[in-house]
Amino acid sequence: MNILLINSSPKRHQSCTYILAQTIIQQLSKQSTVEVIETDATKLPHLDSDYSTTLCSPGVMCDESVGSLSLSNQLISDLDKADLVIIASPMHNFSLPSGLKSWVDHVVRAGRTFKITSTGKQGLLNDKPVYVLVSSGGSFSGKDAYQPDFFTPYMTEVMATVGLNNIQFFTIEGTAANPEAVREQIEARQNQVKYHLENVLISQKRTVDASY
Ligand SMILES: Cc1cc2nc3c(=O)[nH]c(=O)nc-3n(C[C@H](O)[C@H](O)[C@H](O)COP(=O)(O)O)c2cc1C
Question: 42 is in which domain, residue-wise?
């Protein structure tokens, strides 16, 4: 199984969503041989001029072997080859951190990962499970929510644009609280993730296998 892990926390391997991502990988490793490609989204650059020209001016061709076009080709290839995607991210200002937004801008590409039809944008990638692990200093969901959430609706919409509709969110909220409460929440999510992978993902796979 090829796993693509996008990590967009400036805390890198110390981030709580990265820890949760490792739980998913360990759990899947028990079921099959896994190969992980890890992208550090905090290191991704902004888009360059050739990329913008190619996307916005049909007919104009730019050199795809350099710059953002080359990086986009690589990131799309990684996404395409993956059997399962994990996105580990903090919430920044109610939304995506800029590194993750840069990854989105490199992979959501007209003519490559979606096409424009008379009824709207249509995804071109094969569907696959996408696990989005989000952490936030405060609460943005449930009864304790006190701030808007542009992260989860945006990720749902933008992944669907490229054909990825099988998206599952796991959140670790309120990390600004005391460390013990955060540890407990990470543990709770780890158990939730294990349960999900043992029950939901495997039963989905059985249904797919049985349909052949
Ligand atoms: C620039 C910046 C913006 C942030 N914006 C929010 C926010 O809008 N809402 C929130 O609840 N927490 C916000 N936080 C807090 C982080 O989401 C929180 O610390 C998170 O747990 C970090 O996750 P990580 O350990 O995966 O990096 C922000 C943090 C930073 C550095």
Answer: 2-210
